[in-house]
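Escalated from tier 1: SN-glycerol-3-phosphate holo job.
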Amino acid sequence: MSAAPAIGVIGAGSWGTALAQMLSSDGRDVLLWAYEPEVVAAINAEHRNPLYLPSASLSPTIRATCDLPDFAALDTVLVVTPAQVLGKVLAGLARSPRDLVLCSKGIEAGSGRLMNDAAREAAPGSTIAVLSGPTFAHEVAAGLPTAVTLACEGGRAQWERLAPAIARPAFRPYYSDDVTGAEIGGAVKNVLAIACGVVDGLNLGQNARAALIARGFSEMLRFGEALGAETETLSGLCGLGDLVLTCSSTSSRNFSLGKALGEGALAADLMADRRTVAEGAHTAPVLADLAQRRGVAMPIVAAVDAILRGADARAVVADLLARPLRAELESDAGDLTA
Ligand SMILES: NC(=O)c1ccc[n+]([C@@H]2O[C@H](COP(=O)([O-])OP(=O)(O)OC[C@H]3O[C@@H](n4cnc5c(N)ncnc54)[C@H](O)[C@@H]3O)[C@@H](O)[C@H]2O)c1
Ligand SMILES: O=P(O)(O)OC[C@H](O)CO
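Tier 2 regenerated the structure:
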């Protein structure tokens, strides 16, 4: 038991459960909201989450609930639902001023909103922060060293409240005030991880994967610039750091989805009855659309969108390779802008 104030975590998938376990490591109470009653029951009775994080033994100071009103008195709440339901779930939270730390990575389909805009509308009065970076849930749950960006719309004053609440010896947040940049990094890297998985599934080699990471990062920077994100933010943990992690490992659901697509599986089959979330599959269509409407060139994102819609992966890669030659740097583009 600890005298430190309890923290709330909304969403008991693998990431919400891992964050709850990390936060409880100093003995504090953590209240964890789960969508499924059977997850609540297993966490409270057996201190395990067999559906989403079966490898972890959870702390007895984590209490699970299906009732959002239980969170009314908490000053700090992490939000870790899938991106597409974040606004809907938060609408059930009592409207009192608190720090709301968004940990989901995606863009809302239909509205094209980033999570901070969805959260601000659903939970007015909250002060938003975004926690994002290279973070496989099973490693955080196991206490392995991890560093993240913690972007605070409330600036240094909010950071002073949140950093001691969230940092632990092996979990290290870095301060930023660029909420938009932190969200764009996490959302775009999921789509690029699908692209890298496709290349792996097609056996196109490691040169191709490195090229995709570098050219995909250029797309992330261009899109970020269009939305007012800082290049420095995207060059850090929540952008380049997460891109490298997710594009290099079958531990990533997005990379694995892409690999299966490259091996010839159909997106519709891979997405049907899926329990875990591969956010890039939901983000790709809305990101491709936003980029086109804003005139931002994102050919790799468009290629992923096309493959998810059923286009032949090998043909899509051939089209990418057949694009006109161009300058690598925007500043050198001149006439080479195709
Ligand atoms: N798993 C990771 O390593 C990791 C790391 C960083 C960020 N994230 C992000 O965290 C978010 C959550 O991912 P995850 O990996 O914890 O999920 P998950 O794939 O492990 O589990 C799916 C989650 O969706 C929930 N869910 C399904 N339908 C729902 C509904 N209608 N309403 C509310 N909840 C519903 C389930 O209860 C479960 O919590 C995603 O945006 C993901 O990108 C995940
Ligand atoms: O398994 P993924 O692809 O959702 O990636 C998990 C995390 O976002 C990695 O930082």
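The first strand starts at residue 7 and ends at 10.
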